[in-house]
Write a structure and sequence with these properties.
It is a single chain. The chain has 18 helices and no strands. The protein is globular. The protein is an all-alpha fold and 510 residues long. The chain has a single domain, classed as Sodium/glucose cotransporter (Up-down Bundle), CATH 1.20.1730.
């Protein structure tokens, strides 16, 4: 009976998401509406949709999984989870504080609807720079989206024993349907709803996990199975200052995340960004703290229920295991368990929908319309946009076919790719007048290229080189922009003129 109620709750939740997409579909009259919502988002939706799209299934599966893995003899430590969460918390605040308002003002001044549009208009390059940025978005967003689809497959496989691939495909198609119907407004509105569901899931799972594990004191005592587990330099003290810095460097990625930056560009009033910043920062700090703690208490839960010794035990599914046990108590608890599991779906959907939109906009707006069909009739723009979302969905399903991939590891690689490719350029574009086209191209290529070089080459040397690839790649991209910009011709008066106008607008709004 409990499984039936859980199933009904999840189906109702998914139907509700599709309903939101259908309701908002009529508000999409152009590709600008479809991809940016006509810049009509309020401060609460802006804040919560930005952070929900940021956290993804990583919050409810990846982060608790890393914290728990070290307790069950797998790859992961509390120190890694802590420093990653701390870096993301600080990065969230600084991104809202430093980047949000300037990007909102400058992107509107340049009439830019996507991140590649912004860079292309900023440097008056609708050729090479636009194409490179669009391709990078597709390259890194496909595996990022695939990680979300994989989370859906893992969820339903763990819960119902259904085939991973069938569950992953159905979940991906549901996300694609409401995103295709409602576009950016649907993605942002559903993300707002999903952030609420995610919060409920975190709180209930934490409470129940502690109660089953014998209370908070016993839960903490059980971590003694790994001496020094809470040591912020790792159980064996192997976390060097450089290793900590590289984990903390997750926060650098925020200023290069297209799906988050789009929220800054879409708010209806830049004066409301301060309120959005406060809401977003508080939610992120609390939710990540709870997620890490769930990983810690997950060991006691797994020990008490006998899960820890079972073959195939997956630390990233600890919330699924807790919710499944929770749902067997009575019908009311089964419905709540359904909401908790919907929270995992919410985390997945809230990121996947934004990623699909960003990738689709790069294909249809920044590649197709810019280089192939330049005079695409407006009535066909929406059709092309929706078709592109479906195409990205199918490609992502192929990438998610392997059920054994780690959600945390896939997301970390894609995060590094965006952070290093776009982060340094975003900072320089907003704050350094001397940045030129050549420097922009060099920064994007060198930053993105270094992610691959470090991840699959240099990091394998071990020792001081075995750090998160975002840190060296971000520095590489930033240095490339500065050095190449200084060694090549200064930007034209037209480009600097727009920069000066933007700065003048910012001064008046100060």
């Amino acid at each position: 009976m409990s499984l039936v109620l859980i199933t009904i709750t999840i189906i109702a939740y998914m139907a509700f998401m599709i309903g939101i997409g259908a309701r908002l579909s009529k508000q999409n009259q152009s590709s600008d509406d479809f991809y940016l919502g006509g810049r009509r988002l309020g401060p609460f939706v802006t804040a919560m949709s930005a952070e929900a799209s940021d956290m993804s299934s990583w919050l409810l599966m990846g982060l608790p999984g890393v914290a728990l893995a070290g307790l069950v003899g797998m790859n992961g430590t509390f120190a890694e989870a802590f420093w990653t969460a701390a870096g993301l918390g600080l990065g969230t605040y600084l991104n809202w504080l430093i980047v949000a308002k300037p990007l909102r003002v400058y992107s509107e001044h340049l009439n830019a609807a996507t991140v590649p549009d912004f860079f292309a208009n900023r440097f008056n390059d609708h050729g090479a720079l636009l194409a490179i940025c669009a391709i990078i978005i597709v390259v890194f967003f496909v595996p990022y989206t695939a990680s979300g689809f994989a989370s859906v497959g893992k969820l339903f496989n763990s819960l119902f024993g259904v085939d991973y691939h069938a569950a992953m495909i159905v979940g991906g198609l549901v996300i694609a349907v409401y995103t295709t119907l409602g576009g950016f407004l649907a993605a942002s509105t559903t993300d707002f709803v999903q952030s609420i569901i995610m919060t409920i899931a975190l709180v209930v799972v934490l409470w129940y996990g502690i109660s089953v594990g014998g209370g908070f004191d016993q839960t903490i005592a059980n971590t003694e199975v790994v001496p020094g587990y809470f040591n912020l330099r790792g159980p064996d003290g192997s976390f060097s200052v450089l290793t900590i810095a590289s984990s903390f460097a997750w926060g650098l990625g925020y200023c290069g995340m297209p799906h988050i930056l789009l929220r800054f560009m879409a708010i209806n009033d830049d004066r409301k960004l301060k309120l959005s910043r406060r809401i977003a920062t508080v939610w992120v700090l609390i939710s990540m703290g709870v997620a890490v703690l769930i990983g810690v208490i997950g060991y006691s839960f797994a020990k008490e229920t006998g899960l820890a010794g079972q073959k195939g035990f997956d630390p990233e599914r600890i919330i699924v295991y807790i919710a499944r046990t929770f749902g067997k108590i009575n019908p009311i608890m089964a419905i709540i368990a359904g909401l908790i599991l919907s929270g995992i779906l919410a985390a997945t959907m809230s990121t996947a929908d934004s990623q699909m939109l960003a990738a689709a906009s790069s294909v249809s707006e920044n590649l197709l319309k810019a280089f192939i069909v330049k005079d695409l009739p407006q009535e066909k723009e929406i059709r092309v946009a929706r078709f592109t979302v479906l195409l990205i969905t199918l490609i992502s399903i192929v990438f998610a076919w392997n059920p054994n991939g780690s959600v945390f590891r896939i997301v970390s690689f894609a995060w590094a790719g965006f952070g290093a490719s776009f982060g340094p350029l975003m900072i320089c574009s907003l704050f350094w007048r001397r940045t030129n086209r050549a420097g922009a191209i060099a920064g994007v290529i060198c930053g993105g290229g270094m992610v691959f070089l470090w991840k699959f080459g240099i990091a394998r040397l071990g020792g001081v080189f075995a750090i998160y690839e975002l840190l060296p790649a971000f520095i590489t991209g930033l240095l490339a922009i500065i050095i190449v910009s200084l060694l090549t011709q200064a930007p034209s008066e037209d480009i600097t003129g727009h920069f000066d106008e933007y700065k003048s607008i910012m001064a008046k709004k100060a």
